[in-house]
């Protein structure tokens, strides 16, 4: 495969090199050279997970209009204004500026007539799906999978039919859940984008991010109000959780169960407490959307007991959308749910874990990974082949994918492969520390809230 000489980069050599590496990877090679790490991770997802046809020349239509929470309407409005402003900046550059929803479905596109006509040849147009699982590595879908702005140039696109484009994209993420809410992109035919594209994208989503923050703070206030109006059962405890399962407000008893401050409202999402109840909150949101009268019960682990405690969960609504949930301790009313926070196993184990070292892709069997550690927006793996950066973007995602392989969340920052735990140490105040079977006997702390879960999982 060759790339048109007018395309993509300031030098032909780069385009030719990426094209050669793309051909090797499509043919089944795992090691590539000179390809950006984000692109390598995307190629792996396209080939191994999504199985996207690399010869694709047209993005498929979005099969069903993807649903989005009403709180994202303000995001689309803000991004639409930003897209129009950017289009004025690039009106002489033959660019297409588009806005997509969090599922990668294009909602609107702007550009001069010739640019839009050329874009339609690849179905870079409203109602088409540019998620990675549908259209491979591209500015929209890869922005959904990335923490910041992305630039996909020529043969960096997974699908050969899109390799005449250079695309920059950035996702606006829900400030509560971290899920993508919308994506802003700039695409140009056979020519590199201006150096200012990253600034344009970042500036373009700034107002949308602030709108989400205001909405999240308002939802926090409403959760505090719902907490104050709720009837607390005798001898129990109550906590208000946001949609991500973080604590907005806990009473005295719940604060002991969850090890968070009591009666201290956390209206701003940046100040809320992570307590490992994301799955419970997600189930409450999903069931509440289907049935506004839904109430469920489950069991969770706490630091006060070696045994799980029963909880009842009830979604909280504002303008017909779920903004969080109230959890009542010591109650079991409504629809039963499976225990939350135990060592349940779901589905089949994935074949490999993907790490990166520079621009090299490292494919690992689950047994080769001892633990994963969150460090800001990065996830690092302790492996038989050294310390590697993970292709995953959150411990929650890794936990869900590899629970069948013996991995357990022991701390908000650590996911441990229990098969590699060699010793368990106790601290002066009863804290637990896991000693791994590495040459340096690496030690991973166990949070107090997860101590009972870890003891049960290890049989101690």
Summarize the structure in words.
With 460 residues, the protein is of the alpha+beta class. The protein folds into 3 domains: 12-214, GAF domain (Beta-Lactamase, 2-Layer Sandwich); 230-336, Beta-Lactamase (2-Layer Sandwich), CATH 3.30.450; 353-458, OB fold (Dihydrolipoamide Acetyltransferase, E2P), CATH 2.40.50. 29% of the residues lie in helices and 27% in strands. It has 11 helices and 21 strands. The chain has helices at 12-26, 37-50, 73-89, 113-121, 132-135, 139-144, 197-229, 252-258, 278-290, 395-402, 451-458; strands at 95-101, 106-111, 150-153, 165-173, 180-189, 237-242, 247-250, 296-300, 309-318, 321-329, 335-336, 353-357, 360-364, 369-375, 378-383, 386-390, 407-411, 414-417, 421-426, 432-436, 443-446. A 7-stranded antiparallel β-sheet has the order 13-12-16-15-14-18-17, sandwiched between helices. Strand 15 and strand 16 form a beta hairpin. Helix 3 (73-89) packs antiparallel against helix 7 (197-229). The longest helix has 33 residues, at 197-229. The protein starts with 11 loop residues before the first helix and ends with a helix. The relative contact order is 0.09. The model is unreliable at 1-12 and 341-350 (pLDDT under 50). This is LytTR family transcriptional regulator DNA-binding domain-containing protein. InterPro entries: GAF-like_dom_sf, LytR-like, LytTR_DNA-bd_dom. Residues 353-460 form the HTH LytTR-type domain. Keywords: DNA-binding. GO terms for molecular function: DNA binding.
């Amino acid at each position: 495969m060759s790339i048109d000489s007018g395309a993509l980069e300031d030098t032909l050599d780069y385009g030719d090199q990426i094209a050669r590496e793309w051909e090797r990877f499509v043919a089944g090679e795992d090691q590539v050279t000179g390809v950006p790490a984000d692109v390598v991770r995307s190629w792996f997802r396209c080939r191994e997970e999504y199985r996207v046809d690399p010869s694709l020349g047209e993005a498929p239509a979005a099969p069903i209009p993807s649903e989005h929470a009403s709180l994202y309407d303000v995001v689309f409005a803000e991004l639409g204004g930003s897209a129009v402003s950017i289009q004025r900046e690039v009106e002489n550059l033959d660019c297409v500026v588009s806005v997509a929803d969090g599922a990668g479905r294009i909602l609107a596109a702007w550009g001069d007539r010739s640019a839009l006509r050329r874009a339609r040849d690849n179905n870079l147009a409203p109602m088409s799906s540019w998620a990675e699982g549908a259209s491979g590595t591209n500015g929209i879908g890869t922005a959904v999978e990335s923490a910041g702005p992305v630039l996909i140039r020529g043969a960096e696109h997974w699908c050969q039919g899109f390799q005449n484009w250079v695309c920059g994209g950035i996702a606006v993420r829900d400030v509560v859940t971290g899920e993508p809410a919308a994506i802003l992109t700039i695409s140009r035919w056979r020519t590199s984008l201006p150096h200012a594209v990253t600034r344009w994208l970042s500036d373009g989503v700034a107002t949308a991010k602030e709108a989400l923050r205001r909405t999240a703070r308002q939802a926090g206030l409403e959760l505090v109000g719902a907490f104050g109006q709720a009837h607390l059962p005798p001898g129990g405890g109550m906590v208000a959780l946001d949609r991500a399962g973080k604590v907005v407000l806990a009473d005295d008893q719940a604060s002991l169960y969850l090890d968070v401050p009591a009666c201290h409202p956390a209206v701003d999402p940046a100040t809320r407490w992570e307590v490992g109840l994301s799955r419970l909150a997600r189930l409450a949101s999903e069931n509440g959307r289907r049935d506004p009268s839904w109430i469920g019960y489950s069991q969770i682990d706490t630091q006060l007991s070696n045994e799980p405690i029963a909880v009842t969960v009830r979604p909280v609504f504002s303008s017909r959308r779920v903004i969080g949930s109230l959890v009542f301790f010591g109650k079991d009313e409504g629809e039963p749910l499976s225990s939350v926070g135990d060592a349940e196993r779901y589905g089949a184990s994935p074949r490999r874990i993907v790490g990166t070292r520079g621009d090299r892709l490292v494919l690992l069997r689950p047994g080769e990974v001892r633990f994963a550690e969150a460090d800001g927006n990065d996830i690092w793996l302790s492996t038989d082949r050294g310390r590697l950066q993970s292709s995953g973007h959150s411990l929650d995602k890794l936990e869900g994918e590899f629970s069948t392989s013996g991995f357990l969340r022991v701390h908000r920052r650590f996911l441990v492969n229990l098969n590699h735990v060699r010793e368990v140490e106790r601290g002066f105040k009863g804290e637990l520390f896991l000693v791994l079977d590495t040459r340096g006997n690496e030690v991973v702390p166990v949070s107090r809230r997860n101590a009972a879960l870890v003891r049960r999982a290890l049989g101690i």
